[in-house]
Amino acid sequence: MKKRLAILATAFFIVSVVASCGVSDTMLDDADKRLKALKAKGLPDSVLSLPQVHLYQASDAKKRSKYSDTKGEARAAAKLLKKELANAEAYYQQKVSKFRPQVDSLIAVIKKNRDNFTGLTLKRFDSMSVVADSFSKIDWLMQSYAKAKELVDLIPQFNADAGRAKELRAIVPGEWVCTQQDKSAENKDINAVTKKIFTFEKNGKAKFVESKKGRSGLYLREDWEFVSTGIWEVAGDTIHVFVSRFASVRQMFERMFILEGGKKKEWRKEPKPTYDSAITDGSQDRFVAFADLKEDFEQTKKFK
Predict the structure, then answer these.
(1) Can you give the pTM of this predicted structure?
(2) Residue 8: inside a domain
(3) Residue 49's beta-bridge partner residues?
(4) Where would I find the H helices in 65-197?
(5) How many domains would you assign to the chain?
(6) Neighbour tally for 95: CB within 10 Å
(7) 265 partner at 20 to 30 Å CA-CA among 19, 163, 166, 180?
(8) Is 57 contained in some domain?
(9) pLDDT higher than 60, residue 3
C-alpha cells in the first residue's frame, strides 16, 4: 500500500513539474498588458514588433497544445517573449531618461508664450498645451515631447493669428448687410429678396438676422425671419458667432394649387409656428472668414 502511495505521489509530482513548466494564461495576459502599456506610452512598433510576434506564437502554441504536442513550442516562444519584452522596457527607460529635460524645456517655452494670447487663440493654445502637460505628469514623456514640440513649432503661427485677430476686433464692429434677389427671366412674377444682417457690438454681443420675402418660385411665396443672438470672437482671420438663442419671428408660406383640370389657380397659406429657443449645443453657431464677409456683405454701420 505504501509503495502504491509512493508511486502515486511521484506521478503527481512529475505532473506538477510538467504543468509548472507550461505557459500560463496569467503570464500571457501580463505580457499583453505590458506591451499595450508600452505602446500607449509611444514606444515605436519597430521596438515592439518582436515581443508581439513571440506573444502571438506562445498564445497560438498554447491553444494548439490541446490537440497536439506543442508545449515545447509554447515554452520556447514564451522564453523569447520574456527576453524581448525586457529589452523593450529597458529601451523605453533609456529613452525616458533623455526626454525629461527636453520635455521640461519645451513646457517652459509654452508657459512663457501663453501670456501673448487672448480669446479663442488662447483657448486653442491651452487645449494643445494641456495635452502635453498631462502626458508629462504621468511620465508618458514620448507623447508629451511630441505634443509639446508640435505646439512650440506652432507658436509663430499663433502669434500671427493673435495679431490678425487684434486688427479685426477694431474693424469688424458694426452692421454688415447682404441682400440677394431671386428673379426669373421666364416668369417676371418671381421676385423674392433675401437679406442677411450681422450686427457685431463692441462689447462682444452679436446678432444675426436672416429674412426672405416674395415669390421665390412658380408655386411658392415666402415671408420668414430668423434671429440668432449670442457673442462674437475672432480667431486668426475668422469671425466666430456663438449663438445662445435662436428665434423664429415669422414663417409665412403660400403655395399655389392648380384646380379644375388647370382652369383655376388658388394660393393657400401654410404658416409655420414661431418660437424662441435657448441653444446650448452649438448647433446654430456661425463661422465666417473676414475675406468672405467683405466680399458678400456691405458694412452699413461702424461702431467705434
Answers:
(1) 0.69
(2) no
(3) none
(4) 71-114, 119-137, 141-171
(5) 3
(6) 17
(7) 180
(8) yes
(9) no
